[in-house]
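RECORD TYPE: inverse folding
INPUT: structure tokens
STRUCTURE:
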């Protein structure tokens, strides 16, 4: 599997750390801007990447099976679209795109060309998450779902001083909803599907949500998702039914362990994750789907990403968080 990489940030470094666990993956090239030359050269030497490039067109003209896009949120759509137009399979980091309209365009293009496109969202592929889905019927009728992913960002200190970094910049499709809370949305939508109603109540500074409360109404039960980069709290996910509860004290993107707590007093501690690093399972499945030409499974996961993209777009706009991409037709 010949892979090209675009980007040289923290998420790319995180991905490269697991590549020794990905069988048959050949790191053909990494592409970025000249300012990242030192970082990319280090990656090349450390992980055996064959070449460093500074032109995306050159990367697209390389003999590749797939391109991994690890760029700021606002660039996901444009770079993914160019890759699909060049007949390359695509793995794009979360969030899939800045807007639902962009997500629909990528989905349509991939299906038209019979190409693979994946959103790199860890929780959907983790054994613990799949086990939670399997155990849901034991909880009886679901009543309340709570997800809290609050993590004080070191970048928030700079933000308060007036230095706007991409994580807190509307021009880069930043903010708490698009970062931490997007994991919560994936977590909930993967278990329960599309909600009936969506409301978002953000704390807004300089036009961006530094934290916020997302409320998803599923009719028979309600869900609250908290994502915060301006304050912290113990991380917790609770799925509460009339027969029991699933409690998880690790972030929605990691799902390291959880407890099944039944109303009769019995409890079970469960941890079925088979890799320490959260990203291994998703990439194993991505490459397996490509190798087996399993477009059906790919497009099933794509439908999930479309729902999440629609939820975040509706939520943002209701909360008054507007990106430049929202004004494009």
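DESIGNED SEQUENCE:
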């Amino acid at each position: 599997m010949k892979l090209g990489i675009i980007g040289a940030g923290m998420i790319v470094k995180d991905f490269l750390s697991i590549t020794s666990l990905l069988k048959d993956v050949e790191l053909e090239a990494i592409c970025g801007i000249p300012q990242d030359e030192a970082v990319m050269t280090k990656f090349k030497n450390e992980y055996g990447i064959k070449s460093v490039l500074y032109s995306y067109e050159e990367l697209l003209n390389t003999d590749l099976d797939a391109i991994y896009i690890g760029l700021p949120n606002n660039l996901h759509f444009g770079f993914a679209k160019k890759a699909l137009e060049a007949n390359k399979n695509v793995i794009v980091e979360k969030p899939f795109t800045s807007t639902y309209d962009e997500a629909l365009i990528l989905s349509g293009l991939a299906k038209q060309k019979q190409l693979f496109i994946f959103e790199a969202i860890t929780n959907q592929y983790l054994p613990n998450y799949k086990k939670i889905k399997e155990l849901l019927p034991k909880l009886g009728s679901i009543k309340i779902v709570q997800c809290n992913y609050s993590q004080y960002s070191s970048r928030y200190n700079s933000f308060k001083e007036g230095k706007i970094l991409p994580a807190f910049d509307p021009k880069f499709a930043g903010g708490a909803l698009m970062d931490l809370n997007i994991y919560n949305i994936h977590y909930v939508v993967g278990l329960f599907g599309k909600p009936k109603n969506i409301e978002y109540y953000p704390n807004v500074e300089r036009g961006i949500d530094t934290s916020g409360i997302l409320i998803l109404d599923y009719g028979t039960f309600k869900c609250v998702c908290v994502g915060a980069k301006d304050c912290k709290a113990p991380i917790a996910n609770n799925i509460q039914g009339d027969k029991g509860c699933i409690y998880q004290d690790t972030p929605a993107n990691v799902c390291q362990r959880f407890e099944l707590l039944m109303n009769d007093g019995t409890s079970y501690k469960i941890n079925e994750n088979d890799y320490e690093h959260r990203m291994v399972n998703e990439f194993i499945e991505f490459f397996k789907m490509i190798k087996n030409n399993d477009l059906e499974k790919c497009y099933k996961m794509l439908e999930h990403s479309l729902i999440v993209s629609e939820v975040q777009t509706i939520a943002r706009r209701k909360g008054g968080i507007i990106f430049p991409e929202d004004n494009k037709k």
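NOTES: The radius of gyration is 20 Å.
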